[in-house]
Amino acid sequence: MDAKKENKESSYMEDDGDIGSVMGFSGFGKKARTFDFNAIFEQTRRTAIERSQRVLEEREKEGQMEVEGESSKSIKASVQSEGTKALLGPPGNTANSDDDDEDDEEATQEDDDDPVKKIPDTHEIILQHGTKTVSAMALDPSGARLVTGGYDYDVRFWDFAGMDQSLQAFRSLQPCECHQIKTLQYSITGDVLLVVSGNAQAKVLDRDGFNVMECIKGDQYIVDMANTKGHTAMLNSGCWHPKIKEEFMTCSNDGTVRTWDVKSEKQHKSVFKPRSFQGKKVIPICCTYSRDGKLIAAGCQDGSIQIWDRNLSVHTKFHCRQAHAVGSDTSCLCFSYDGVTLASRGGDDTLKVWDIRNFRKPVNEASGLTNYFTMTDCCFSPDDKLLLTGTSVKREEGSGKLVFFDRLSFKRVYEIEVTNASVVRCLWHPKLNQIMAGTGNGLAKVYYDPVKSHRGAKLCVVKSQRKGKHAETLTQDYIITPHALPMFRDARQRSTRKQLEKDRLDPKKSHKPEPPVSGPGRGGRVAAHGGTLSSFIVKNIALDKTDDSNPREAILRHAKEASENPYWVAPAYKQTQPEPVFAEESDEDEEADKEPEWKKRKI
Where is the composition biased (Basic and acidic residues) (predicted)? Predict the structure, then answer.
């Protein structure tokens, strides 16, 4: 090794010497190393292939060992079970373990087939939105954030990954000032949020609550609502297009359903006008898109459900005149995941399921579901086998419930008592497999199962509550005064006479009055004429006591001086100016002077 090093160093020195001799100096010193990157990359690729092959071989061996161990265990178990059955069982009873395995598989299949066992209701968390009704709820597509809105005008943002066990919202705002929140919904990408409130203008916010766009308000004096650029009355509902991320829809008390584009806030895209059997205007209470986004459905105040083709806004494609009771508010429409079934929640305390291919009669119907709100929800389970809705109750007259119906048989298979108030909003998120419910007393409850659910509420319940800062735990703040220590205090006077003499010299302590100003004045004071310049001016103005009540005397006052010392007018007209002749005072003037002041004519 030493010989190799010496040879390398000698070769380096020779090369340096040759180059140095050419350049005119002795050498460069030690030469830098060179690398062949292609060879290095090839070597790393080969080692990676060899390692992956080894890992695969080891995994195959482990799998074979596990299979052999399970087979040996099953053989031993079958032998033991046969032996015990031969000893304990009755004669002639030779039951096989294969039958037991088949029974277990059938039981697991029954559990999978039973949709009720998939309901995640073993655990719950309570989010305190406020004290008034939670009238709107929304979850983003990933299930990371929950948004709640209510009758208290507030919109609260809840982040499951950022919350701890205190379950506090990270943001609260009032985007629509003094208007109740009707609907909240995230777009399909989850980057923007639609806010529909009691005013005529819907808003779109970003994920942090900042304004992205606001719909324009229409002209309320135009009769044909198709000729206005926006809604002219209170909004009732709204939703996003399931395929196009920039398009959303709203319905209003002005009798129209309008589609909008986020990029063009100055005018709507299209207008759909529901009509009654007589052709009169009907108010839409709720609206929704089909799962493929090709159909637009609206539940109207006359009890009808009207469905249009998204591209044809004049005539309806499907129309059911008497879907619900006349005059009741259809609070929710929801399409199933297969896009064929439509569920409607009526203000007549019913829940109906429709097949849009045969839209004349409902497929199934459930009654006795009390509904006091115009935004009571209904939704399908992620596997499309169950239908969920909430019930309303009067104050302190029972508990609001989440009721589950089987989609095919439409039997009430399950129910959850939520709280002693109405259940207004309900969501069943397909990714999280968690159920959210908004109640009439300001609560937002989240139901989940630690095994069947994913993320969501499971992320925040495991985090311990953060401790308060030390400064916040102080019960009493101490005020430390500067120069309070004895070393900073002034020395105490032994005799009071000296202290009195000092105080006498101090003008502030002795309350010495200010001396009169001598000279022109200083410090904003004018000498002998008051304290300020304004008082001096006022005093000088008041000194002029000339009486100009008699204009004749006022003019003749200067006549003697003007005749003796003419300066301005008289020298110019000395030769041509006639002598002035003034009227003599008469008795009338004297009598007029004697009249009292209140009889004199005011000039």
Answer: 1-11, 52-64, 490-514
Asked if residues 83 and 94 have their Cβ atoms less than 8 Å apart, the reply is no
Backbone dihedral angles phi then psi of residue 236, each to the nearest 5 degrees = -115, -35
Strand positions, DSSP E, 74-170: 123-128, 134-139, 145-150, 155-159
Rounded (10°) CA dihedral 261, 265, 266, 269: 10
Q: Give me the pLDDT at residue 81, please.
A: 41
Scan for tokens 């942090």, then name that residue.
Answer: 208
The parent domain of residue 355 ranges over 135-383
Q: Is residue 456 part of a domain?
A: no
In a domain, 512, yes or no: no
Structure tokens at 13: 């020195």
Residue 185, in any domain of the structure: yes
Sequence-distant (6+) residues with CB within 8 A of 593 are none
Residues in the chain: 603
- What CATH number corresponds to the domain at position 288? 2.130.10.10
Angstrom distance (rounded) from CA 307 to CA 333: 11
Does the predicted TM-score (pTM) go above 0.70? no
What is d(CA 215, CA 250) in angstroms, rounded to the nearest whole number? 10
pLDDT tens digits for range 257-285: 999 999 888 888 899 989 888 888 899 99
Number of domains in the chain: 1
Q: 165 in a domain, yes or no?
A: yes
Q: Are 195 and 165 in contact (CB under 8 A)?
A: no
Task: Classify 469 as helix, strand or coil.
Answer: coil
- Residue 3 pLDDT greater than 50, yes or no: no
CA–CA distance, 580 with 455 (Å, rounded to integer) = 114
Q: Identify which has the larger pLDDT, 343 or 492.
A: 343
> Rounded CA gap, 339 and 306, in Å?
16
